[in-house]
Design goal:
25 helices, globular, 10% strand, 680 residues, alpha+beta, 48% helix, five-stranded mixed beta sheet
């Protein structure tokens, strides 16, 4: 045993690379990471497993750690009666998803920290989320719960066995979905449009009450469906993006979005900043500028991109996972301002700050001020000076901790977001950063040709990768690679996309029912092999594959990719009809399938600049773009059938616009290109 209560002793988590797990290495709890050895120990000692799942930016995870896991008396109870396993949900989404299903079945809700009690065989029999140190709000004290579970295990084992079997059967049944043989038509999109209208908050935007999450997939879906004729959804996009960017959920001074708003008006955020939120939102705001030319949306995208590159990217190219909500022992302390503090700091610029960011004596958050966009008027130079002064002062505060692990899935998502937003907004530095991030995953996280989930450094600074990547890692890497191919025209990105898709099919494809399992055929098999189907804070692996495999088929002419995409859509078609707002990205795949995506081939000559501007500023939700220099067309025809026979007209950059292989006459010149792209 590594753990112990003596000063200076650490537990087994000291050998891990996850910052979340390393936060618990000094706990008196004798934590194990999830491993065969931990499960074998539980069996050998005939002890139940206490599984605790959380993540580094989770506020209530920190609270429970301070209250219970750092308390010696509580740790003694845990060590005596349980084999205690700590899991970073971001490293092991398979474990998190499986046992979250069980907790939700038991309690009707879920969240983090997640606390689940398992048999030594890994079957859940009791669980919940946060448990306080004393009885509170209907929740039992954690120590009291530990004693009750230990007593039940010792004296009423039959109850545990019955409950664990019931829960395991329930979780197993929940993953079995009947494949629909209905035609995939636009009626599913029409139903989604109606549900979006019913769910929309006309006062503050968004599609729920408090707490309110950004839901970029649904905002993008509104824009997609508006382009299909559901024009009533057009305003919903802006009426969500505008207040979301004006509230405290957007960091008005430093850029980037917090995770969600605790209120309906987007004013008070839960202060952690997640890479996956910002990776999606930068693209959503850039697309909105492309569609509406709203300068505020462009400014928000630019500020978010600058924050990502400045604060979240490792020197070697990979993007970190998150920033903590807490600093100096308080949530949001880094971001909020006392009025006296701000006015003393700003002097004659105080009135500028008060007018711009709504500072007041009473504040909007526990007596302090979260900056919001109270007014977009005022002298821009003065606003910039005030913001710079506040940021300089903020930089002197204790900064929230950064979760420095690099996740393959989230870096693929960041690569896709930055590449597309960089293309739309003509930011080649963003495209270069996206290429760095996705290259980092391919080059540093693929030992022996098998993609890994996470890259990190242990307490001694040694680099490690693992566990083997899940389907969402491959799916997001496919998306990032295709986005980079469109943004750069570099054929190596299309080759990487094909490798990723082929590897994902080999590892995760369900040859019996269709769709993709979350875990690979070569990975540890838990009590149930799940499929990730619902689009939540991040798009589900199956929805990403359903969209990106169609796009890959458009690029390569390989219809087998589209066939698998269609089977994946059919897997969830009946569920999509019942609950469309849970499938924002999957509905984008249906939109692509039921439309005639534009296949845009740009054969570039020396005058390409203005033509590229015309393409990048056109809102085309269903399209693929191929950029190729006229000298290289001949060498790429086999890999990209779309470029077969393409050439320039004279010495001018020439654009071909096709639909399902049927092409219009080629055009040159930015005006003609813009008109052609607007045509139906």
């Amino acid at each position: 045993m590594i753990g112990g209560h003596d000063s200076g002793m650490v537990n087994r988590l000291a050998a891990e690379t996850s910052p979340y797990l390393l936060q618990h290495k000094d706990n008196p709890v004798e934590w194990w990471p999830w491993s065969e050895e931990a499960l074998a120990t539980a069996k050998a000692q005939d002890k139940p497993i206490l599984l605790s799942v959380g993540y580094a930016a989770c506020h209530w995870c920190h609270v429970m750690a301070h209250e219970s896991f750092e308390d010696v008396a509580t740790a003694d109870l845990m060590n005596e009666h349980f084999v205690c396993i700590k899991v970073d949900r971001e490293e092991r989404p398979d474990i998190d998803a499986l046992y979250m299903d069980a907790v939700q079945a038991m309690t009707g809700q879920g969240g983090w920290p997640m606390t689940v009690f398992l048999t030594p065989d890994g079957e859940p029999f009791y669980g919940g989320t946060y448990f306080p140190p004393a009885d509170r709000h209907g929740l039992p004290a954690f120590a009291k719960l530990l004693a009750a579970i230990a007593d039940t295990w010792a004296n009423r084992r039959d109850e545990v066995t019955r409950q664990s079997k019931r829960l395991s059967e329930y979780v197993g049944t929940a993953v079995r979905i009947a494949i629909s043989d209905e035609p995939i038509t636009a009626r599913f999109l029409d139903s989604a449009a109606e549900e979006l209208g019913r769910s929309f908050d006309p006062l503050h935007g968004g599609f729920s009450g408090a707490p309110k999450f950004p839901q970029p997939m649904l905002v993008d879906l509104c824009a997609r469906l508006s382009a299909r004729g559901h024009t009533e959804l057009d305003a919903m996009s802006s009426q969500t993006l505008d207040p979301m960017a004006a509230g405290g959920m957007f960091d008005q001074l430093g850029g980037g979005f917090h995770r969600y708003s605790v209120d309906r008006s987007w004013t008070v955020p839960h202060f952690e900043k997640m890479l996956y939120d910002n990776a999606q939102l930068i693209r959503t705001y850039a697309r909105s500028w492309q569609r509406t030319r709203a300068e505020r949306h462009r400014a928000v995208a630019l500020a978010t991109g600058e924050w990502m590159l400045a604060e979240m990217q490792d020197a070697e190219g990979g993007f970190y996972s998150s920033l903590d909500a807490d600093s100096e022992g308080a949530e949001g302390r880094y971001y909020v301002w006392d009025l006296d503090e701000a006015t003393t700091l700003l002097g004659e610029l105080s009135e500028v700050a008060i007018g711009r960011w709504g500072f007041s004596v009473e504040g909007n958050f526990e007596g302090a001020n979260i900056p919001v966009l109270a007014s977009d008027e005022g002298d821009p130079d003065s606003v910039e000076k005030a913001a710079a002064a506040l940021l300089a002062a903020r930089a002197r505060r204790a900064r929230p901790n950064t979760d420095t692990k690099v996740l393959a899935a989230w870096n693929g998502l960041a690569g896709a977001g930055l590449a597309e937003a960089g293309w739309i907004l003509d930011r080649p530095d963003w495209i270069a950063a996206a290429a760095q991030a996705v290259s980092f995953v391919f080059e540093r996280m693929r030992p022996g040709g098998r993609l890994m989930r996470s890259f990190g450094r242990d307490a001694n600074g040694s680099e490690r990768v693992g566990p083997p990547g899940f389907c969402d890692d491959y799916a997001s890497l496919l998306e990032g690679s295709l986005s980079l191919f469109e943004a750069t025209g570099d054929i190596s990105w299309l080759r990487r996309a094909r490798w990723t898709a082929d590897a994902a099919i080999e590892l995760f494809w369900d040859s019996d029912e269709g769709g993709f399992f979350a875990t690979g055929a070569d990975q540890e098999q838990l009590i149930v092999r799940k499929k990730e189907l619902i689009d939540n804070a991040v798009p589900a692996a199956n929805s990403v594959m359903a969209l990106e495999l169609q796009r890959l088929a458009s690029f390569t002419g390989d219809d087998s990719y589209e066939a698998r995409a269609v089977q994946t859509i059919r897997l969830v078609l009946s569920t999509v009809e019942r609950a469309p707002l849970a499938f924002g990205n999957l509905l984008a795949a249906i939109d692509y399938y039921t439309s005639d995506p534009k296949e845009i081939v740009i054969v570039a000559a020396d005058d390409a600049g203005e033509v590229l501007d015309a393409v990048r500023t056109a809102y085309l939700p269903n399209r693929v773009i191929v950029q190729v220099d006229r000298e290289r067309v001949g060498g790429l025809q086999e890999e990209i059938p779309l470029v077969h026979g393409r050439s320039t007209i004279g010495n001018a950059t020439t654009v071909y616009v096709c639909k399902r292989g049927v092409c219009d006459l080629p055009v040159t010149g930015s005006v003609a290109v813009a008109e052609r792209l607007k045509a139906g």
